Amino acid sequence: MKQAALLLTIAFFATGTQAKVWRVNNNAGVTADFTNTDLAVASASVVNGDTIHIEASATAYTGFTLKKRLVFIGPGYFLSGANANTGLQVNPNNVTISSLYLDTLCSGSQFMGLTFNVSPNFQGASDNGAGTDNITFTRCNLNFFQTYGYTNNNNTITGFVFNKCYIQGLSLAVYRAQNCEFTNNIFSGALDLNNVLNLNNLVRNNVFRSSITMYNGYFSNNIITGTTFTLTNVTIRNNISTGTNLPAGSGNINSATDAALFLGLTGNSTDGQWRLKAGSPALAAGETVSAITPDCGAFGTADPYVLSGIPPIPTIYLLTVPATIATSATTMPITISTKSNN
Fold first, then answer.
1. Please, what is the Cα angle at 70 between 341 and 163, to 5 degrees?
2. What does DSSP say about strands 315-320 and 166-167: parallel, antiparallel, or unpaired?
3. Helices (H), the chain
4. Which residues contact residue 60 at a Cβ distance below 8 angstroms, ignoring those fewer than 6 apart?
5. Could you give the CA distance from residue 190 to residue 202 in angstroms, rounded to a whole number?
6. Would you say residue 119 has pLDDT above 60?
């Protein structure tokens, strides 16, 4: 029945699109197009523009080198265990990818609803990766993301997007990062954009719980702790800090407190604790654009952070099937509860 539920989810997602959706599932006894991610991306049948739907599993999926422009979708994260957002998926396991190497041929690829749990580093680019551009990570749990394999800081990556992710550390310092966006994320670890050749990067509506280093860009509507904060040639507007490290003026607020800003962990999830509480100084404190003044932090703007990174496709979060039925029965009552997750 769980297999039927997953197929129903795929059917919803595939409606109205010509690109093919491929199922990957490494659970014993489940029939899918592929049993692991490396087999899917290596298949000649999987072509640019296709979608790889990776299904929930307690076992990590094999890492791979990506040389095609594909979309990868998983079930989200923080779905079970301590401080989880429960009841969002019928299968509470996440999808963990052991490693990822991005080749130039995969430019334009997207990743959502996935956990990248590599220690110590998430391998952001291989030795073939210089010039890999326009990669999007949205609604993902990134244990640690860093560009890897180069000592030459003249290589450039352009158009990377990190949106609505839970990030435990991110460093693009090895490369020149240009026209990259970091929006509506929760950073439990550091953000390192420490390259003097960076250009035109946007960091907006994030929650930062660790250090930030950045050259050449725009920094607005963020909530940060009073830790190391080094921004050079960066426009800094409408941010809130629990320390005194923000420059005066331009809508910036110093000396706020976590207790005044956030709901907190008690009664909330790992990511849900960073929602704003009633009366928070971050409410309607963001930079006004087109007569709209958003909240600061990851849950601000019309495109806020989504709890557990649930992907924007219909999901089945509850499936009720009778334990037994009579041998003479011609029907069987099944209850399926779904959400659209827009």
1. 45
2. unpaired
3. 2-14, 37-42, 258-261
4. 96, 97, 98, 117
5. 16
6. no
Question: How many whole angstroms separate alpha carbon 9 and alpha carbon 46?
Answer: 20
Give the CA diameter of the chain. Answer: 77
Residue 132 DSSP one-character state: -
| Token digits of residue 2 | 């769980």
Residue-wise pLDDT tens digits, 120-132: 334 444 444 456 8
pLDDT for residue 338: 61
Whole-Å CA distances, 188 to 123, 141, 220, 280: 19, 11, 18, 20
In whole angstroms, what is the distance from residue 261 CA to residue 223 CA?
A: 9
In which region does residue 8 sit, left (phi positive, over 0), alpha (psi from -120 to 50) or beta (all else)? alpha
Tokens of 336: 């399926």
Question: pLDDT digit string (tens) for 2-43?
Answer: 444 444 444 444 444 478 999 999 999 999 999 999 999 999
User: Cα separation of 222 and 341, whole Å?
Assistant: 25
Of residues 249, 168, 167, 183, the one with CA closest to residue 221: 183
Q: Give me the amino acid identity at 234.
A: V
Q: In which band, very low, low, confident or very high, does the pLDDT at 227 lie, cut at 50, 70 and 90?
A: confident
DSSP 163: E
**Tokens 């404190």, located at residue:** 285
